[in-house]
From TrEMBL:
Segments of skewed composition (Polar residues): 695-706
Protein name as catalogued: DUF839 domain-containing protein
Pfam families: PhoX
PROSITE patterns: TAT
Transmembrane segments annotated in the record for this chain: none
Upper taxonomic lineage: Bacteria, Pseudomonadati, Pseudomonadota, Betaproteobacteria, Burkholderiales
Region Disordered, annotated ranges: 693-736
């Protein structure tokens, strides 16, 4: 079995000062290089011949940034690098998953929250105002409209060619490669999937409902057996302003009284595009508060971010614009001219990512997916068509065969360690509508498209298990077992009295009481903990919650990814070793292992290591976010465990405890950065990861007692060697701006990453 050798010196340490350095720390024998930073150009001139100047002048990023035209950001790395995938490429420029010296990387640019100020050339913590206002830096004024254009372009996906030097064995970006391409929140995309959905996509931009513009909040990712990339739209609702509607919207008014808008309001609110307080008529619209993009002008370029029904028909306005977001989006990295397709058959929610199940000829294509919000669900998609390897040559057209027609399921975790996949067919959902809570009870669906576009409501009806924020999934290539990180939840509550039902809302939904889907849910076997976070002294703070998250895993019946039953247990419980309260450090983590808020996770096919990444704010007063290496066991290798006592006791199932040779911290990142994205060269000798939003908490650093007026991080810049990017002193200096970036991790002896850690 796999185990770390005793000689390894993984970065985990009880040296708290070092763990808060503004730096990347790796085990002895490892190094890294910065590959692709926010703002780095992919081309030297744009299609009109205008030069795209280099972004980094050797000292800092502040010098020229405000003066770049907004359009230049269509050709630069976006912000908040997140999930991604390595696509090996052969000499003919075709997909070759085994290619080790030439590849296309596809990288998501999730967001600009907490860092938008840096791309406008200022250090202050927040640049958003309602309405958006001009920003002046020195002699340069950036209008509100140009700010929005830059921000739209800073979202989306980068596809770019990388090559490995045959002598140095180090990778670099091939600027001006014909494969280099940015997909932004303004790129034209098509709506794939059941025709029944098209009418819900009609906008002033696309009166036939076949097209939309842009992809948003691209979080984790996936890939297909035919060599295309899947980027997933997570927190897209917060970009849109909604209602109140000037015109009643027909077609979504079913069963909810005289006000024709009530059905629409319920659907909007279930996706965070407003809230319901009381009955369905009491709808408070959202204001697009994340960005206020709709406020920067009056033309359609800005009006597209407002889903108020202002015209007579849907083709007069953008009331349906938000219906075109929340999907798995397929991109063909090998064909920059191919229009990306939104795969609506895979459901609409806050898609974290899409993880491919084991692939076999003559069997369906299966994807595991999660909706990353408190009390949301884990899903599975099973294609109707069985896999024919000859289709691998079709590129994105293969996606039309396998990803436009299939069955969606939601996971239900039973208390006996079994689970079932509940189908979200219209027939099954209609039979369960009486289960819908509060004001949703009585709502019905118009057609299959309505069910798909409102997957969350369908899952409520059939009774999926509400989870503590599903982040990444990972499929063990050795046995097909599926892991999901459940990062944390501030809406998970302990049971304190008889009659409180595991997994149920804390208060009974009512048609007249204040109603929110995002209200507390009692602990249950699959989400069994609710406890106080602790500060760096180990003292409890705040309300009880799942403060540190856990990792659940399941084994499909008969190892068949299309099965409708599974067995599950909890692989690991996150915890701080300082938190000594009963029922917290359930996995008996040590100082070399303890972690909080698991997010990214990925199996190396070379070593079998399960890599785990964190995106945390409960433990960031003690340590920056991290990457851990773990040795997976299998479902059932531990046993039953009871968390809590008396009426509050929850019986659950956990994996075996892992020794320090089986679970170990491997990397600790710079300040206020999430560690995310995992890609590996097929020889296992380069691990690519993403450092997301260093310094995002400018002015309000999560680290206790720290208030900073300049960015809390300056990674990766104030260095003698920016290529290496190590800030040896660990302290930001001056008013230099941090950047998200893709880094490449190498072993100094050229060996397999983690290969010295496993026997
Ligand atoms: Fe974008 Fe769920 O993290
Ligand atoms: Ca994530
Ligand atoms: Ca804490
Ligand atoms: Ca993040």
């Amino acid at each position: 079995s796999l185990s770390f050798t005793p000689s390894s010196t993984a970065a985990g340490s009880t040296d708290l000062t070092a763990l808060l350095d503004d730096n990347i720390k790796l085990p002895a024998g490892y190094t890294y290089e910065v590959l692709y930073r926010t703002g780095d150009p992919l081309v030297s001139t744009d299609p009109l011949g205008n030069p795209i100047p280099a972004h980094y002048n050797g000292t800092d990023y502040t010098a020229n940034v405000p003066a770049y035209p907004a359009s230049s950001w269509q050709y630069r790395a976006g912000d908040h690098h997140d999930g991604g995938h390595y696509f090996g490429m052969n000499a003919a420029g075709k997909f070759d998953p085994k290619a080790t010296d030439r590849a296309l990387l596809a990288i998501n640019h999730e967001n600009i929250a907490g860092t938008a100020q840096f791309i406008h050339g200022i250090a202050t913590a927040s640049i958003t105002s309602n309405p958006r206002a001009d920003i002046t830096v020195g002699a340069v004024t950036t209008t509100a409209a140009d700010q929005v254009r830059k921000e739209v372009n800073a979202h989306g996906v980068s596809v770019f060619e990388i090559r490995r030097d045959t002598t140095t064995k180090r990778w670099s970006v091939v600027v001006d490669s014909p494969f280099n391409k940015r997909y932004t929140a303004g790129t034209v995309m098509s709506m794939g999937g059941p025709a029944a959905a098209k009418k819900y996509f009609v906008t002033k931009f696309s009166p036939t409902g076949e097209l939309t513009r842009g992809t948003l909040n691209n979080c984790a990712a996936g890939y297909t057996p035919w060599g295309t990339y899947l980027t997933c739209e997570e927190n897209w609702p917060f970009y849109f302003r909604s209602g109140p509607n000037a015109t009643p919207v027909t077609g979504l008014a079913d069963g909810k009284g005289a006000d024709k808008n009530q059905g629409r309001y319920l659907r909007l609110a279930r996706y965070g595009l407003g809230t319901i307080s009381g009955d369905a008529s009491q709808f408070t619209p959202s204001v697009g508060s994340e960005k206020f993009w709709s406020t920067a002008g009056t033309t359609d370029e800005f009006a597209r971010w407002d889903v108020t029904a202002s015209g007579t028909t849907a083709a007069d306005d953008f009331r349906n614009a938000a219906n075109t977001f929340g999907y798995v989006v397929e991109i063909d990295p090998f064909d920059p001219s191919a229009v990306p397709r939104k795969r609506t058959a895979m459901g609409r929610f806050y898609h974290e990512g899409a993880w491919l199940g084991p692939v076999a000829e003559g069997k369906p294509i299966v994807y595991y997916m999660g909706c990353d919000s408190r009390n949301e669900y884990i899903y599975k998609y099973v294609s109707t068509k069985n896999w024919n390897p000859a289709d691998a040559s079709l590129g994105i057209l293969a996606g039309d065969l396998y990803l436009n027609d299939g069955t969606l399921y939601v996971a239900k975790f039973n208390s006996d360690g079994t689970g079932v996949w509940l189908p979200l067919t219209r027939t099954a959902v209609n039979a369960a509508l009486g289960n819908l809570p509060g004001p949703y009870n009585g709502l019905s669906f118009n057609d299959d498209g309505d069910v798909l576009i409102h997957t969350r409501i369908a899952a409520d009806a059939v009774g999926g298990t509400r989870m503590d924020r599903p982040e990444w999934g990972a499929v063990n290539p050795k046995n097909g077992e599926v892991y999901f990180t459940l990062t944390k939840s501030s809406r998970r509550t302990a049971i304190t009295a008889a009659g409180q039902t595991q997994g149920a809302f804390v208060t009974t939904p009512s048609g007249t009481a204040a109603y929110s889907q995002d209200r507390p849910v009692y602990v249950d076997p699959a989400n069994p903990r609710s406890y106080q976070d602790v500060n760096s002294a180990g003292t409890g703070t705040g309300a009880a919650q799942n403060a540190n998250g856990h990792i659940i895993r399941f084994a499909e019946a008969n190892a068949n990814p299309a099965a409708t039953a599974f067995r599950w247990d909890i692989y690991l419980f996150g915890a701080e070793i300082r938190n000594t309260a009963a029922g917290v450090n359930v996995s008996a983590l040590t100082a070399q292992q303890d972690f909080s808020s698991p997010d990214g996770c990925w199996f190396s096919p070379t070593t079998g290591i399960l890599w785990i990444q964190t995106d945390d704010d409960a433990y960031t007063d003690v340590t920056n976010c991290m990457l851990l290496a773990s040795v997976p066991g299998k479902v059932g290798d531990g046993g039953p465990v009871t968390i809590g006592t008396g009426v509050g006791a929850v019986n659950t199932f956990k994996g075996k405890n892992l020794s320090e040779s089986q679970l170990r911290r491997f990397l600790v990142g710079p300040r206020d950065a999430e560690i995310t994205g995992l890609m590996e060269s097929p020889d296992g000798k380069t691990l690519f990861i993403n450092i997301q939003h260093p310094g995002e908490n400018t002015g309000t650093s999560a680290r206790a007692g720290t208030s900073v007026s300049s960015p809390s991080s300056s990674w990766p810049q104030p260095n003698t060697d920016p290529k290496v990017g190590n800030n040896a002193t660990g302290n930001p200096t001056g008013n230099t701006f941090p950047r998200s970036a893709t880094i490449a991790i190498y072993r100094n002896d050229g060996g397999v990453i983690g290969g010295d850690l496993v026997a």
